[in-house]
Queue: 2 jobs
Job 1
Amino acid sequence: MNHTLNITANNEASVVERLLQVTRYRGYQLAGLELTPMAEKAGLSITLTVSSDKPIHLLTSQLHKLYDVRDLQLASADIAALRA
């Protein structure tokens, strides 16, 4: 099942590395990553798409704990997988 997360984070050099480490450690496969600097220099908008059969809350609960993450929202899930 694919999940898309919209993340707002501080624009720090290591924030993407930390996000990817947690994602990998929790057993999710990276399916897509988009980074967009926000108008303010200190902000970064990240769209992270992951794939796994595991419940997504296992990943989101860990990403919320990262101190560089300001906001995290589950944007979408693979609808076909939800119907199965």
Job 2
Amino acid sequence: MTDAAVPTGPSGPVTRSGVARVGMATAVTAVCGYAVLYLAARDLDPAGFSVFAVFWGAFGLVTGAANGLLQESTREIRLASRQAPGGAVTRPMRLAAVVGLVSAAAVVATALLWSSHVFVQARWLSVLLLAAGLAGFCLHATLLGMLAGAGHWSQYGALMVTDAVIRVLIAGATVLVGWGLVGFLWATVGGALAWLLLLLASPTARLTATLVAHEDTRGFLRGAAHAVAAAGASAILVMGFPVLLQATGGDLGATGGVVILAVTLTRAPLLVPLTAMQGNLIAHFVDQRRHRLRALLAPIALVVGVGAVGVALAAVAGPWLLRVGFGPDYIADGALLAWLTAGAVAIAVLTVTGAATVAAARHRAYSAGWVGATVAAAALLATPLDLETRTVVALLCGPVVGIAVHLAALAKT
């Protein structure tokens, strides 16, 4: 990863080429994510895959919360590029280092209270890997946000791809040497040092990492706190959903492994690209701040259109793909896969409305929307229905609460 030049001017509008670069990186990232899941599902039995998937979800949960730093950094750097420098100097990367260390310490310090309810095997290794991975990802997410705010989409995409490729390499090595579950735990967190590799290789990334935020330290942390709270709630529904299932359903066993894999596979085609393109979305909505509700129409229409195709494909080809791709132990009917895909569409729409709410600096409404959606989903998961039914109901109905909160807030801006 090298750069021919180091652009230093202010960020421009979100262009099609920028979206295309991130789109290509997203495609590679999605393939790599599928590859890790495929290798884990083929190498482990369904019960073992369930254990891995809970750790994968737990790491996704905490790093998803850390993506609040990405969102706030994108907004702050985008706004700072349009105004004359002055006032207090806030350096997001330094704050991210402090936040990462404090967060890692909190994970370890509180592990006795929660780890036995989440990690049923390799508990303390899981706790330590979770803490170390979170510390690295805080810097990773902040650098991603700064690159998005500054409009450096090539470096943004390179950071995404480096993270994903590291995971696949470790997972592949795990299969070759027979490392088993422990190897896949390491693969989950292995990409958390990708930010450091990019800084070593890219002059543009190093220059971007020195940029200062629009607000002072207190204002930046206040906005980041709201974004982290909302991103944490969103992460429970997106990446941390296996943890939520574990917490509300006890030992998931083989059935849980099948349901978790089905949830992951049906949502990835929509949510992986949307999560990766948060920087593009927030920058777009910042640029369209006078017409935010109107600016929502095209992204939501695209999400719903792609989702409708996905629902049909899941119903028709999903069971066959699941069985052929992952083995005869992974069986789910087409109706379940179609409903899970519809749930993914609902979460995708919530992701888009959330990005618009962040761009409007409506941090309380943003967090309230995601927290409301998560609380509703958790309540629905606690109902006395079978695992498949309550999973579908939670994924379909929970996001509607958050979408309503976001739209109400945007209507008032």
